Amino acid sequence: MGYTILLAMLVVFVSRMVWADDVTPIPEDKPGVTQWFNTNVAPLSARKGTLDPALEAAEASPRTITVNPKGGEFKTLTEALKSVPAGNTKRVIIKMAPGEYREKVTIDKDKPFITLLGQRNAMPIISFDGTAAKYGTVDSATLIILSDYFMAVNIVVRNTAPMPDGKTKGAQALSMRISGNKAAFYRCRFYGFQDTVCDDTGNHFFKSCYIEGTFDFIFGSGTSLYLKTRLHVVGNGIRVIAAHAGKSADERSGYAFVHCKITGTGGGIYLGRAWMSHPKVVYAYTKMTSVVNPTGWHENKLPAHDKTVFYGEYKCFGPGSHQAKRVPFTQDIDTTEAKRFLSLGYIQGSKWLLPPPTL
C-alpha cells in the first residue's frame, strides 16, 4: 500500500513538473532567454520519463550518417534519406558537409525522427527553383517535411526561382513546407519571395533563425513559436509577413513571434493579413524597425473579418512598434493574455522539444 501511494505521489510530482515547464514564460529581458531555454529545454538525460515515449525510445540509440556532394557515404541528401527505412523508430542524424545541394527534397511521413545537421560556420545550402506553376503552391518547396519529430540545425534552404513580377501566373515559390508535428529549427536560414515558409500544420519551434521574403512569406495553419528569429522583408509594393490560415474560433493554431526582429528595405511592411477568417498572430518583445507600416496590419478584404482576426502586440519596441495609427482590430493584449503565447505550453513543447545535438 505504501509503495502504491509513493508511486502515485511521484506521478503527480512529475506531471506538475512538466506542467510548470509548460507555463514558465519567456522572460522580457533578452539575456534571460538563454537561461530560460537551457532550463526548460534541457537535454534528454535530464528529462527521462517526461517526454513522449516514442521520442525517448528513438533518442536512446541514435544513428549518424554523412552526406557530402564531393563524395562520401552519400553524395545527395535524397540518397541519404532513402537509406532510412519506412517506419523508422530511431533518431537518424544526417551530417551535411558544407556545399550546395541542388535538389528538391521530401521527407516522407513514414520517416520520423530525422535531423539535418550542418556546420554553424559553413552551413550547407539546399536549393531548387520549383514554382507553383509547375508543382502547385505547397508542393513547390525546396524542402518538404511530412514526418514528425523533425529537427534542422545550421541549414540554409533556398528557392532560387525569380521574384514574382505580379503578372506571371503561378510564380509563388516556397523555400520550405513543414507539415509534420513536433518539429524544431535551430539557426536555420530560409530564402524566398512570395510564400517562403509554409508553416502548414502541427507544433513547431524556430530559434535564432532567419526568414526572408516579400508577400505572405510565413503562411499556413501551424501552431508555432518563433524565438529570436529575424524576419527580413525584401522587394517592393505590398509586403506582408504572416498569413496565418485560421478558419474558426475553436482552432488552437497560431503564430507567436517572441524576441524577434523585423528588418527590410523600403517601408510599408505589414505584420500580417487575414488570408482566412480567423488568423491568430502575436508579436511580443519584438524589435520593429521603421520598415513596418504605421497601421501594422493589412486591411481586411472582408469587413466581417475585423471581428474574427486575433492580432496581438505585446511590449514590442522600435520605431515601427508605435500603436497610435494601428488598425482598430489590433488586439491590445495584457500580461495575462500574453502569457499563453510566451511558454512551451503554446506548442506543447515540454513533451517533445529537445536542444540541438552536439556532435
TrEMBL record:
The cross-references to InterPro entries, in alphabetical order and at most eight, read:
Pectin_lyas_fold, Pectin_lyase_fold/virulence, Pectinesterase_cat
For biological process, the GO terms are: cell wall modification; pectin catabolic process
Q: What is its EC number?
A: 3.1.1.11
GO molecular function terms noted in the UniProt entry: pectinesterase activity
Where found, per UniProt? Secreted, Cell wall
Alphabetized UniProt keyword annotations: Aspartyl esterase, Cell wall, Hydrolase, Secreted, Signal
| Pathway named in the protein's UniProt entry | Glycan metabolism; pectin degradation; 2-dehydro-3-deoxy-D-gluconate from pectin: step 1/5
Q: Where is the signal peptide?
A: 1-20
Looking at the record, the residues that make up the Pectinesterase catalytic domain are 71-349
Which top EC class is given?
A: hydrolase
Q: Which Gene3D superfamilies match?
A: Single-stranded right-handed beta-helix, Pectin lyase-like (2.160.20.10)
Which PANTHER family does the UniProt entry name for this protein? ACYL-COA THIOESTER HYDROLASE YBHC-RELATED, PECTINESTERASE PPME1-RELATED
Regarding protein family, the annotation reads: Belongs to the pectinesterase family.
State the name under which the record lists this protein: pectinesterase
Natural source organism: Thlaspi arvense
